[in-house]
Amino acid sequence: MRSSNPVFSRRGFSRDNGYAGFNAAPQAGGPAVGTQANPYAQQGGGNPYAQNPYAQQDLQQGAPPQAPVTTGRMTMDDVVMRSGMTLGTVAVGAILAWALLPVTSTSFGLAIGSALIAFVLAMVQSFKRKASPALILGYAAFEGVFLGVISEMYNSQWSGAPFQAVLGTMAVSGATLLIYKAGWIRVTARYARIGMAIAIAFILVMAVNLLLVAFGGAEDGGLRSMGPLGAIVGIIAIILGAFFLTLDFKQIEDGIAYGAPREEAWLAAFGLTMSIVWIYVEMLRLAAIFSGND
Predict the structure, then answer these.
(1) Rounded to an integer, what distance in angstroms lies between the CA atom of residue 39 and that of residue 18?
(2) 93 close to 74: Cβ distance less than 8 angstroms
(3) d(CA 281, CA 294)
(4) Which of 29, 54, 212, 294 has its CA 20 to 30 A from that of 152?
């Protein structure tokens, strides 16, 4: 099963388009960790744990394997570095857009155009077999322009909303990571299926709402209004963003444990960036609603 962002479908750490996460099924007669086999076992000429008797012992006892001491394998430092690059690119794009583009209908058009380009780049990356740093950084740059323009627009009407959204995004992301690391959330196949079903239902409802608003069937934004109903929908969307962060964390954890190739760190950064952007946009709307200046 592939992890997916509510905005964009994306591929998880993979081998021949397989998934190295919580839903990998063990192969008959093969080593398993809990209920999963190493999807990288045959990658690069053999099982990276084959020469490590301690890793073999871990596999037999059902304990999480230790990452193999080999070059070219993904590490947490790789993930942090790539994530810093992608999120930094988003931030730079947003700052430049805020500083250089005034709040006009033209800048709003540029924001929509940037969002569409970011969407296309993300979709192309999602269907590629390997991570493309150029595509991922390009996505981050255009996403940054979009966020910079809409943040400036929100700030012009609800002063301080972007700053509150940034703090809220950091709080949600940090709390989600702490809860995940504490083991309060176990990312299992059942957990993912339920979450994905809710996310798909949410997206479909939002799509119908958008059509109703566009054709006059719903007033004041319908479910996405700037009132109490809109706040409830925004909170649900933020919870979904946190859910997708837990899938990202699990992918990263499994990728490192199973010795994913180093370039897979770009996919980790890609997924984390999309989830965090999703949370920020919803936080921005929520901050505007709670400002009471509508």
Answers:
(1) 8
(2) no
(3) 18
(4) 212
User: pLDDT tens for residues 29-72?
Assistant: 333 334 455 555 544 444 443 344 434 444 444 555 554 445 68
Work out the number of other CB atoms within 10 angstroms of the CB of residue 7: 19
Q: Which residues contact 180 (CB under 8 A, 6 or more apart)?
A: 187, 245, 246, 249, 250
Q: What is the pTM of this model?
A: 0.78
Which one, of 219, 289, 259, 249, lies nearest residue 48 by Cα?
259
Tokens at residue 9, please?
Answer: 């479908």
Is residue 10 over pLDDT 70? no
Whether 22 and 32 have beta carbons less than 8 Å apart is answered as no
Both tokens assigned to 181: 């690391």
What are the b/e assignments for 258-292, b being 16+ CB within 10 Å?
A: bbbbeebbbbbbbbbbbbbbbbbbbbbbbbbbebe
H helices present in the chain, as ranges? 53-61, 76-100, 105-127, 133-157, 161-181, 189-214, 228-257, 264-291
- What is the per-residue burial (b if ≥16 Cβ within 10 Å, else e) of 162-196? bebbbebbeebbeebeeebeeeebebeeebbeebb
Q: Which two tokens stand for residue 210?
A: 């958008």
What string of DSSP letters covers 126-142?
HHSSS--HHHHHHHHHH
CB of 76 closer than 8 Å to CB of 256? yes
pLDDT for residue 190 is more than 70: yes
- Cα separation, 50 vs 138, in Å, equals 39
Tokens of 121: 């780049």
Q: What are phi and psi of 100, to 5 degrees?
A: -100, -20
Question: Residue 203 has which token pair?
Answer: 């997206």
Please say whether the dihedral angle defined by the alpha carbons of residues 209, 210, 215 and 218, taken in this order, is positive or negative.
positive
DSSP code, position 261? B
Q: How far is CA 66 from the centre of its chain?
A: 25
